[in-house]
Amino acid sequence: MSSFSVRFFAPQQPLLPSTASSFKPKTWVMAAPTTAPATSVDVDGGRLEPRVEEREGYFVLKEKFRDGINPQEKIKIEKDPLKLFMEAGIDELAKMSFEDLDKAKATKDDIDVRLKWLGLFHRRKHQYGRFMMRLKLPNGVTTSAQTRYLASVIRKYGKEGCADVTTRQNWQIRGVVLPDVPEILKGLDEVGLTSLQSGMDNVRNPVGNPLAGIDPEEIVDTRPYTNLLSQFITANSRGNPAFANLPRKWNVCVVGSHDLYEHPHINDLAYMPATKNGRFGFNLLVGGFFSAKRCDEAIPLDAWVSADDVIPLCKAVLEAYRDLGYRGNRQKTRMMWLIDELGIEVFRSEVAKRMPQKELERASDEDLVQKQWERRDYLGVHPQKQEGFSYIGIHIPVGRVQADDMDELARLADTYGSGEFRLTVEQNIIIPNVENSKLEALLNEPLLKDRFSPQPSILMKGLVACTGNQFCGQAIIETKARALKVTEEVERLVSVSRPMRMHWTGCPNTCGQVQVADIGFMGCMARDENGKPCEGADIFLGGRIGSDSHLGELYKKGVPCKNLVPVVADILVEHFGAVPRQREEGED
């Protein structure tokens, strides 16, 4: 494979935080430790033999390592999924009827598995013949032109078409049919978007600071780094076979804020800004992940890289994971399982020997993320570092938008801003670069008054929900509409005065990230008062944003969804200082 090199311009000087802001909610976050825990694991030399090799431009699992592999690995061996894009296989699939595609195993595997390498997820259970398409949107930055194009795609699908802001600062569009895909891919390319390598055993959307470049208190602008990571991983949207055959999905983020908006503790690789001997760079966290059977926070790699080595380091970590990762039980194939098996020092040495200089510097003790910081609320109006301009964060209830919403958002960005949006991991949207003289008019726009408020209620503000069983075949319960309904009803019972995060996920795969929420709801089957099966939720408590904290823990199992409202109201009163509405009115 051809080599890939990147040079960065010198980053801006880190900015000291201002203490003048009066709108900071009292949610504490802490910077992650940068010294790795001491671990010693004996590893047989043969275990470090790479399990994949390059053949005709693609990376293939060697025959000697194929015993006990999972079904998805077998599908990849039969045909590299990236060939559907790089060798125009998608054009042939798009011409076939779904009935014909389903008749043969090869083409059925194409539509149900391999197309995920193109960001296409067949909704066989709930939308047979239709696909969700996931994009790559590094740092969550998008434009009005891109948004209008996506709106035009979903509009043609009527009630089957919609879009969601995801928990990785990304767009997912729904209702896509296979015959339209070649033209959609062409249209994405024309507006500077791609869906390539956004699903299955690939690197997911690189996350960065949603306020990058506009925040008066940012540490570093993360956009150059997330953009280059995305370009590298997809070979500038042409397809990169070197990293298209990982053992499992892999998440990366670049931290640019003291607020840790990027959630570094739940990423496989997190770049934490730090200086060393006068040079700017990053300490590294590795291994954070969620899955149905195990959830772990990222741990320090005890390594620091300069800004120039962001891409080489990413390449080295990915190669170590690709070469050595386990490919059996899919519940044990995330990178943290490999780190556990090898021990952090052996894993670190495997990364080091894949670096251009064959070594890694130890972590710096000059962290730039402040050790204590009051996490700021980005919703509402806030001044930018550019004098005379502000950004406005607007609440998108559980991340769901329709085509008309997207067109109207694009109009607002063009009329009042610079034609740009920022998507956030909490499924909200930021409109940057608004002249202060235009703020009043923007705030009076019907869309912001009627649907996407800059000042939602406290409980609505922190509400996140996965797709749920409306579209997702793995979800056990409906999430988005139920999350809104339960929250509305709880708000009638209690008054909450502190920031709260409530996350909903439809199944144990925890796409809704319930473990980082104050209160999390994981879909399950429960039993009602008559012992009959019904939709329910396991409730988690105590998750906190910030890598100082532990993940939330299971509090109550199998609560029927119809009983959630009084249970949640009681939890808010007992654990989070909420006040019952009747008592509050009586005191008034």
What's the number of domains? 2
How helical, in percent, are the residues?
A: 25-40%
Per CATH, the class of the largest domain reads: Alpha Beta
Main pleated sheet: 5 strands, antiparallel
* Alpha-beta content class: alpha+beta
State the helix count. 18
CATH architectural designation of the largest domain: 2-Layer Sandwich
Instruction: Report how far the terminal alpha carbons are from each other.
Output: 71 Å
Average of per-residue pLDDT values = 91
Assembly state: single chain
Give me the CATH superfamily of the largest domain. Answer: Sulfite Reductase Hemoprotein, domain 1
| Bulk shape | globular
Low-confidence segments: 1-38
CATH topology of the largest domain: Sulfite Reductase Hemoprotein, domain 1
Spatial sequence of strands, sheet with the most strands: 4-5-8-7-19
- What percent strand? 15-25%
Q: What is the alpha-carbon Rg in Å?
A: 23 Å
InterPro entries: NIR_SIR_4Fe-4S, NiRdtase/SiRdtase_haem-b_fer, Nit/Sulf_reduc_fer-like_dom_sf, NO2/SO3_Rdtase_4Fe4S_dom, NO2/SO3_Rdtase_4Fe4S_sf, NO2/SO3_Rdtase_FeS/sirohaem_BS
Cofactor: [4Fe-4S] cluster; siroheme
EC number: 1.7.7.1
Catalytic activity: 6 oxidized [2Fe-2S]-[ferredoxin] + NH4(+) + 2 H2O = nitrite + 6 reduced [2Fe-2S]-[ferredoxin] + 8 H(+)
